[in-house]
Structure formats: C-alpha cells, structure tokens
Amino acid sequence: MRILVTGGAGFIGSAVCRLLAANPQNHVINVDKLTYAGNLTSLRQIENYPNYRFVEGDICDDIAVLGLLRSEKIEAIMHLAAESHVDRSIDGPAAFIETNIVGTFRLLNAALTYWRELPSDAKNAFRFHHISTDEVFGDLPFDSGIFTEETPYAPSSPYSASKAASDHLVRAWHETYGLPVVLSNCSNNYGPFHFPEKLIPLVILNALDGKPLPVYGAGANVRDWLYVEDHARALEVVVTKGAVGQNYNIGGHNEKTNLNVVETICDILDQKRPRKGGRRYRDLITFVSDRPGHDRRYAIDASKIERDLGWKPLETFETGLAKTIDWYLANEWWWEPIRSGRYAGERLGADVKG
Ligand code: NAD
Fold first, then answer.
1. Is residue 130 a contact partner of residue 183, using CB atoms and an 8 Å limit?
2. Which atom of ligand 1 is found nearest the CA of 60?
3. Is residue 31 assigned to a domain?
4. ipTM above 0.90?
5. Is 22 in the pocket of ligand 1 (CB under 6 A)?
6. Which residues form the NAD(P)-binding domain (predicted)?
7. Choice from 6, 12, 106 to test ligand 1 binding pocket (greatest atom count within 8 A of CB)
8. CA 7 – ligand 1 centroid, Å
9. What positions carry a catalytic annotation?
C-alpha cells in the first residue's frame, strides 16, 4: 500500500513508519513539520530504505499536501500529526487549535479533492485514518466505568478538546461527503524514542541523573498504558482491515496510578543500575502541585478491535517497561542531545499523557 503518514517524525508516527517500511510491499511517505517534538533521528533505521521518503511539510498547507497525494498516488493517509503535550496546551493553546483542528480540516479538504479524482475502484479502497486519543472521553471516576466506542465526548484540556474537534470533523467528512474514514482512540503510549518531557522517559532519565522524580498531586491519577509498538501494529490493522466509518478503541488493559508507574520504574532501575551507597531510586520521588483540569482516570475497553480485527497487545506493562528502560539505558545518543537542550530540568511537572 502507498501510505502518507503525517507526523511520522514524532513518537508514535516514527514507530508506525518503522513498522510499515519494514514491509517492502508498502511505500511510506512521511510528512512532518519538525516541531520541537519531531525528530528525524528516530527514523535512522529506515531513512535509506527505498520504500520510505521524508517530506518536510505542514498539514495546514493543503495545496502542498494535495500535490503530494497526487504525485505519490497515495492509497491511504494515516494522520498522526498533532500538538500532543497536555501541559503545553494549558500554557499556549493556540498551536493546538491551529494544527489539531485547522490542520485536520485542511488535510481533510486535500484528501477529499484527491479522493474525488480517483477512479471508482481506487476510491473504494482509499482510507483516511485519523489517529486520536482516549482523552476525548474525559474523566472517569476512580472506581468505575471504562471508555467504549459509544462513550460520549467530554474533553477537559485544550489538547483533548482540540483532538475531540478533529475527530468530529473527520466523522463529518465521512457522513457529509462520503470520504472513507476510519478512526482510532488510544490510551497512553510509552516505549523507545519517547520525548524526554513525558512521564516515563522523564522519570527514567531524572533517576539516572539523581534528580527529583516529579509526581502530580498524590500520584493517584490512573492511566491505561500501551507499548508504542503494540499501538503501531493496531494502527496497521485498523487502516488495512477497519470498517469504513467505524472507530476503534485501542488499549492494553494496563491501568496504573502515576505513583505506581514511577515506583515500578524505580524498582526496575534498582535492579538494572543500582545507585551508589545502597540508596534507592524511590527516595527521589517528589510530589508537585496538581495540573489544573487533571482527569482522574482513563481506562479503555479494547474488545471491539480485539474481536473484529483480531488485534491483541504483545507486551504486558511489566515486559514493555523493562524493554523501554533497557532502550533508554542503551541509547543515550538519541536522548542526550534533547535532554541537554532546553528541556533539561525545565519543569518539575511531568506530562502524564503517554
Ligand atoms: P508527538 O508530539 O511525539 O509527534 C507529533 C508529530 O507531529 C511531530 O513529529 C511534529 O513535528 C508533527 N507535527 C506537529 N504539527 C505539525 C503540522 N502542522 N504539520 C505536520 N507535522 C506536524 O506526538 P505522538 O505522541 O507521537 O502522538 C501522535 C498522535 O497520536 C497524535 O495525534 C496524538 O494525539 C495521538 N495519540 C497520542 C498518544 C500518546 O500517548 N502519545 C495516545 C493516543 C493518541
């Protein structure tokens, strides 16, 4: 399949590009604006593959995107480009509105123009896959409830509100114009190549540096974690086998409190890289004031994608976390330049979105 991936230099997009490009039957075009979150070194493994191409570009530039769809004869779009960091959306929501809402609108327009030009068999086969988050469903109580595909939207942060808006636009382009779309809403991701401002890499790297390990509030907020390569496999299944107009929840049945996540990382590091003087990494845990509008709990019911499309995660939280820690221990070349830049110690609060 000839696939245009937007945001392929980001955390999840790069995992998707690496997965898709490993199959010589695929042709992968990665369009990315290279914001602070875009990193081409995450694509080093595939950068010289003949079936992979990177194009620096903005999804808001619908003329350029349309030209690319035509010249590359694209058969599917996997739309991951977004502003994705919740804390940043609180400090400065404008970029979130611009890329997540206006950008998705412009991408849909380019896709629709292109799709209308296709011959009928190619038209039927074309897919616009919109990749979204479980945060659009809002806040769950600590002790009950789970997000299904029917859960009403109730976003709490500027980030999740902008993603909710983009989900609605994608559905409307299907209902109104017939564009063949599929949507997926996934829980928190973690794994290799995760930007060091996010909770799991921040905790691993701060621990190795002997710095405080920030935990919002009492650390009681619950997130449902999925290893990024399991998410990438799920996205490949959705774009190739998903039913047009449907949305699929993706998650790994791994509900953990933030404190539990941080403590588990500490305990694994105690084994893999013991601190000097018999000290424990847990001693570095520091509670910081809570984020405004901080959702208590997210939990995903992934039974639809498991039942209808046969996808299942391969990693448990424990195996995925151990792999992730091993990866950060072995790949300082990737994270050190980012970490030594303006993000090192910039904030105490860590983002708990993936
Ligand atoms: P990320 O921030 O790591 O990557 C986003 C990428 O988009 C970056 O490479 C950035 O340069 C690019 N980008 C931003 N604005 C752009 C624009 N206007 N034009 C072109 N490229 C642009 O994000 P991520 O964590 O990889 O998330 C990818 C997608 O998955 C997002 O849509 C996000 O909402 C969704 N998602 C993320 C998680 C998670 O836990 N990280 C979970 C569920 C869904």
1. yes
2. 18
3. yes
4. yes
5. no
6. 4-324
7. 12
8. 6
9. 134-135, 159
Q: Give distance in angstroms: CA of 39 to centre of ligand 1.
A: 11
In a domain, 267, yes or no: no
CB of 13 within 6 A of ligand 1: the answer is yes
What is the domain-level CATH number for residue 231? 3.40.50.720
| Ligand 1: nearest atom to the Cα of 189 | 40
Q: By alpha-carbon position, which residue is closest to atom 32 of ligand 1?
A: 80
84 lines ligand 1 (CB under 6 A): yes
pLDDT tens string, the chain, 354 residues long: the values are 999 999 999 999 999 999 999 999 999 999 999 999 999 999 999 999 999 999 999 999 999 999 999 999 999 999 999 999 988 999 999 999 999 999 999 999 999 999 999 999 999 999 999 999 999 999 998 888 999 999 999 999 999 999 999 999 999 999 999 999 999 999 999 999 999 989 999 999 999 999 999 999 999 999 999 999 999 999 999 999 999 999 999 999 999 999 999 999 999 999 999 998 889 999 999 999 887 878 899 999 999 999 999 999 999 999 999 999 999 999 999 999 998 874 433 333 344 443
Read off the tokens for 133: 């988050």
Nearest residue to 138 (alpha-carbon basis) of 160, 171, 107, 108? 160
Q: Is the pTM of this model over 0.90?
A: yes
Residue recorded with tokens 């509105």: 97
Confirm or reject: Cβ of 129 under 6 Å from ligand 1: no
Cα gap 256→54, rounded to integer Å: 36
Give the DSSP per-residue string, 255-266.
EEEHHHHHHHHH
Helices of type H across the chain: 11-21, 62-71, 86-91, 94-96, 104-117, 120-125, 158-177, 199-209, 228-241, 258-272, 303-309, 317-330, 332-339
Give the distance (Å) from ligand 1 centre to CA of residue 134: 14
Looking at the domain assignment, is residue 55 inside a domain?
yes
